[in-house]
Amino acid sequence: MTTVFITGANRGIGLTLVRECLNKGYQVLATYRSKESTQALITLDQQMSKLSLFQLDVTDYQAARELADVLPPIDILINNAGYFGPKGVGFGDTDPVEWRRVLEVNTIAPQMLVEALYPKLLAGHDRKIVCLSSKVGSMTENTSGGGYLYRSSKAALNSVVKSLSNDLAPEGFTVLALHPGWVKTEMGGPNALITAEESVDGLLSVILESNTDKSGRFIDFRGDELPW
Ligand code: NDP
Fold it and tell me: Name one GO molecular function term (predicted).
């Protein structure tokens, strides 16, 4: 049976990933940051015996290592948790404290989690690592400027994915940077173009169909490759 580990699972794309993976019959290890916002996950947990919930702030690296010790082998790690930072802030208003926070959640934490879970990923069958990136992290796609905090964090995450794909190639890992589309969630907002269900449907197809040939690529939810 496939075992999937998903961060930021209490809402948005993460929650939909949990639901769809359970529908496929996978064992799902889902993490949430704070107990206050977990009602939807708890309801799923009561319905689905293959769901295990764990509290984890992805920037608490000691907690991530301790959690790793009690987990079973993992086939697919999905680094989904993300933070946009303050919205509507442009040139001249950069807040370095918020910038560090965005980098911590979006760039540093995914790498630290890969390192913490590495023994469990090695013990799994699929050896897939997925990072939810964003098209706005692409240099080529950046024609409008702004978004310094979030854009730079996802561009750096893409670099992390590339290095991981090279470092872990000998063990047969597939490491992907995936753009989920512009999705109607708290982060994407109500004007976004697609629902979380549409996004996750595409993301899971890309993840399941990918093999080591696709490792180190930046791909959107439709399966189209994006420029760095
Ligand atoms: P949401 O803002 O709706 O959800 C973000 C999730 O990340 C929440 O579960 C949140 O938990 C969690 N999270 C944030 N910080 C931490 C932390 N320190 N530790 C643990 N969990 C944390 O975002 P989406 O569902 O829309 O986005 C999911 C991913 O997709 C993100 O990586 C995002 O950057 C990316 N993405 C989204 C797009 C969109 O249009 N929506 C477009 C491109 C990329 P909590 O509820 O506790 O805050």
Answer: oxidoreductase activity, acting on the CH-OH group of donors, NAD or NADP as acceptor
